[in-house]
Amino acid sequence: MFSEYSHLSDEELVLAADGELGSWRAARVRAHLAACWTCRARMRRIEETIAGFVQMRSHLDESLPPVAGARARLKAELEALAQSTNQRRPIPAALAGRPAAAAGAALALGLCILFVAQFGSRKFWPASLRAAAAIPRPNLTPGAVRPVLKDQICRDEAGNTAGMVPASLRRKVFEEYGIGDAEPTAYEVDYLITPELGGSDDIQNLWPEPYSKTVWNAHVKDALEAHLHQLVCSGQLDLGTAQQDISRDWIAAYKKYFHTDRPIRFSGGLRRE
Q: Greater confidence, 115 or 257?
């Protein structure tokens, strides 16, 4: 239970996101979220985490081998083993005479071992998933801003607001993303919301962005950051909108504000080569 003067619990937010609350409690949660910025932000992070899990699962479904073929091969091997007179260990009594059950059990165990070995530690994630760091994971890098006004970020010295990320914080960012074994020079520990747009140096606003492993790399995002800063300071774009767009999906923001589906090469300003 909760009151209008307290925040919702994580359990209530998860149940609400999953649609498992009764109508009365669901109505109370909706009313609380409508009035509470903190709980709305937490709900958004929960929903983005669920979306990230679904996306990762789709990657797994594509990368794991077909189950049917592996099951058939394993079944044949177990049947041959059962018929061999030189086998060292008999098949357990519970599975004797049931090669299909034995095959299924062994396959399930094998898949569990494979999953733990491959994905139990994030540093063993396949390159296809590690390259996805071009877009930060919402549960690790939702973005964070500092209290700042448009006039402050549009001063001449605004370009000097982005300080060097300390080495200790850089290491922690790499560890969180499970790429502690990567070559540091291959990544920029980048601000999701750049300081020139009011972004903070909180770790929730940092992630290891590749320089070259994808066309949507750190150099491309730098161009977007400069363009958004220009639009905000010229009065063509609201600061809050710029912060929201770049933190939600910076690649989508790039396509939106540059009116293109692919990165543009620049030479001497905002001009296509």
A: 257
User: Per-residue pLDDT averaged across 212-217, rounded?
Assistant: 86
User: 126 near 63, Cβ under 8 Å?
Assistant: yes
The beta-carbon contacts of 45-50 under 8 Å, at least 24 apart in sequence, are 45/138, 45/139, 45/142, 46/10, 46/13, 46/14, 46/17, 47/17, 48/138, 48/139, 48/142, 49/138, 49/139, 50/17
Contact by Cβ (8 Å): 170, 202: no
Closest CA to 132 of 251, 243, 245: 251
48: part of which helix (H) or strand (E)? helix 37-63
- CB-neighbour burial class of residue 120 (10 A; exposed 0-12, middle 13-18, buried 19+): exposed
How far, in Å, are 197, 223, 236, 263, 272 from residue 230 at the CA level? Answer: 10, 11, 9, 18, 17
Residue 18 tokens, joined: 């999953």
Please report which helix (H) or strand (E) contains residue 256, including its range: helix 250-258
pTM above 0.90, yes or no: no
Please report, for the chain, the start and end positions of each structural domain, with discontinuous segments joined by +: 10-62, 64-120, 137-258
